[in-house]
Design brief:
The protein is α/β, with parallel strands linked by helices. It contains 14 helices and seven strands. A seven-stranded parallel β-sheet has the order 3-2-4-1-5-6-7, with helices on both faces. Strand 5, helix 7 (146-163) and strand 6 form a beta-alpha-beta unit. The longest helix has 34 residues, at 310-343. The chain is globular. It starts with a strand and ends in an 8-residue tail after the last helix. It binds guanosine-5'-diphosphate and magnesium ion. Guanosine-5'-diphosphate (GDP) binds next to helix 1.
Length: 351
């Protein structure tokens, strides 16, 4: 069984950056990972790409050959990929079963809310042994405006119902939230989607004509009671670790490092070893983990980190990095010194 993610969301929501961030994180943790670019319009791919749809079809070719616009061309590319599913399957087989696979989708939202090709491709992947979760990225900027927030809720719900996968909605770029001014509510109001009636005031002030329609949409979303959000600041390791845990839980993925993978000092890769000696799913020692603060799993901590006390946290983290940098330098100097001392030839002193 191969685990992985279908990374979807509107253009600019941060899909490719997230894939790159996850690649860096997993590489640091010795977790094998491969990224499949399924966006034929993706020109500057930031990450090492294991499989690229552009070697099957490009958006430009589709548009020129069939006289289509960018949207129609994109739908054609996905239909073409579905028709040539064997091409994808053959390349995925070459990756090996231990790789965690990210599928970087195009930003056209209809691909994950209406159009059938992506859905059918995902279904076939499931039949070939993939256990995938949908990771739906939405720019956190949308929560700064009640009507945009409603549209993001609708979009997320639609994608959940359409893709029929374990589904994680994510408010991306939370590190930028502070620069958009004060939010009407705390961050947990937006992530937990508990009581949308609080939005009535803002919605009727912004667009009085559509107030009743907006409230009807709110109650529809509440009736389904499905939508909620995680948060993401891609450069923040804690944020990435927390999201990784949530996704692993949704797919049921438990990563056990291979026997020959390098382990932290003192770790034993043995199922019978005491828990504190075993590396966990992140390749870290449980005892080592207990020394550091756990990933920011509570949304109130995220609010404190990125909104309420952002400057203080930035200063604190900068000081931490400086200290860690100094420790690494000291350690290197000590090691070099030790090698020099051990390597020095024994000179017999003659008197
Ligand atoms: N500040 C910040 N910028 C981000 C984050 N994620 C993505 N971006 C930026 O958002 C822009 C669009 O990202 P990209 O990955 O190309 O979006 P895509 O179209 O969904 O693949 C790029 O300029 C990224 O650098 C984030 O977590 N924080
Ligand atoms: Mg992209």
């Amino acid at each position: 069984m191969t685990f992985g993610e279908v990374v979807c969301g509107s253009p600019g929501s941060g899909k490719s950056t997230y894939c790159y961030g996850k690649h860096q994180l997993f590489t640091a943790l010795n977790r094998p990972i491969a990224i499949v670019n399924l966006d034929p319009a993706n020109e500057n791919i930031p990450y090492p790409c294991a499989i690229d749809i552009s070697s099957l079809i490009t958006l430009q070719d589709a548009m020129e050959e069939h006289g289509l616009g960018p949207n129609g061309g994109m739908l054609y590319c996905m239909e073409y990929l579905e028709a040539n599913y064997d091409w994808l399957e053959d390349r995925l087989k070459e990756l090996g079963p231990e790789s965690y696979v990210l599928f970087d989708l195009p930003g056209q939202v209809e691909l994950s809310t209406n159009h059938e090709s992506v859905k059918r491709i995902v279904k076939r992947l499931g039949k070939s042994g993939f256990r995938l979760s949908a990771v739906h990225l939405c720019d956190a900027h949308y929560i700064t405006d009640a009507s945009k927030y409603i549209s993001v809720l609708m979009l997320s719900l639609r994608a959940m119902l359409h893709l029929e996968l374990p589904h994680i909605n994510v408010l991306s770029k939370v590190d930028l939230l502070k620069q958009y001014g004060d939010l009407d509510f705390n961050l947990d109001f937006y992530t937990e989607v508990q009581d949308l009636s609080y939005l009535e005031n803002a919605l009727s002030t912004a667009s009085p004509r559509f107030s009743a329609l907006n409230m009807a949409i709110c109650s529809l979303i509440e009736d389904y009671s499905l939508v909620g959000f995680e948060t993401l600041a891609v450069e923040d390791k804690e944020s990435m670790l927390h999201l990784t845990r949530v996704i692993d839980k949704a797919t049921g993925c438990i990563f056990v490092p291979s026997a020959d993978a390098p382990l932290p000092d003192g770790a034993v890769n043995d199922a019978h070893a005491p828990p504190a000696q075993r590396p966990n799913a992140f390749g870290l020692m449980t005892s080592a983990m207990s020394n550091v603060r756990g990933p920011r799993s509570d949304v109130r901590d995220v609010q404190e980190r990125w909104i309420d006390a952002r400057e203080e946290w930035d200063a604190y983290e900068k000081a931490q990095w400086r200290r860690e940098g100094q420790l690494v330098k000291d350690e290197e100097a000590r090691r070099k010194n030790g090698i020099r001392q051990r390597g020095a030839p024994d000179v017999e002193m003659k008197t």
